[in-house]
Design brief:
By secondary structure, the chain is of the alpha/beta class. The protein has 6 helices and 5 strands. A 5-stranded parallel β-sheet has the order 3-2-1-4-5, sandwiched between helices. α1 links the parallel β1 and β2. α2 crosses α6. The chain is globular and about 50 Å long.
């Protein structure tokens, strides 16, 4: 069974993330989407909120599991017996950072490979940062995020 790890902050998950996740789920037997926990990073959503929203957003994808971790992704992958890391690319500008990350991971464990999946063009401009900014200004983010996330953000910023 081929298991892939799709790591990220997903703060919040976007339609672009889901596009990559769905395609990874078509390729691999199991995909574990893992929310990275970084105590040094100021998060928009709590880890619990991220996990709940991701689970609601991908409930129809049978071979996807959602988890969180604190530490090196490569160590998490070893612990879960996964040999592939999924990384999404939106633009050429993403590639340099992702290539360096992939090479560092390969140096740490050459048995775990990185697979790059490019988002569909209609999603390549969407970033979690853009979504956060629009939501905080009480704008409509429904074009950029799955329905559970749009509903949560609308409630958070119209009632808050």
């Amino acid at each position: 069974m081929k298991t892939a790890i799709y790591p990220g902050s997903f703060d919040p998950i976007t339609k672009g993330h889901l596009d990559v996740l769905k395609r990874a789920a078509d390729i691999f037997d199991k995909v574990i989407l893992v929310v990275s926990v970084n105590v040094n990073k100021k998060n928009f959503l709590s880890t619990e909120e991220k996990i709940r929203l991701i689970q609601e957003s991908c409930k129809d994808i049978e071979n996807v599991e959602v988890d969180s971790f604190d530490g090196l992704t490569i160590e998490y992958a070893k612990k879960r017996n996964a040999n592939v890391l999924i990384r999404g690319l939106r633009a050429v500008s993403d590639f340099e950072y992702e290539m360096q990350l992939s090479q560092a991971n390969s140096a740490l464990c050459s048995d775990i490979h990185t697979v790059f999946l490019i988002t569909k063009p209609k999603y390549n401009f969407i970033s979690s940062g853009t979504v956060r900014e629009i939501a905080q200004m009480r704008g409509d983010v429904s074009k950029f995020v799955p329905p559970p996330v749009a509903k949560f953000l609308e409630e958070k910023y119209t009632k808050g």
